[in-house]
Amino acid sequence: xxxxxxxxxxxxxxxxxxxxxxxxxxxxxxxxxxxxxxxxxxxxxxxxxxxxxxxxxxx
Length: 59
What we know:
The chain has one domain (17-58). Helix content is 81%, strand content 0%. It has three helices and no strands.
């Protein structure tokens, strides 16, 4: 069984990994949000969404 000190020593070699993973995840999420925002502002996307909803409510 590990003591608190032994457990800390085992994880200290990768102590910066959590921060790097959060940074990569944050960049990926913000990039994805930027792409979605750009897509929604395009006229052809607006027309496609409008057409989909018109066909749904036509029934």
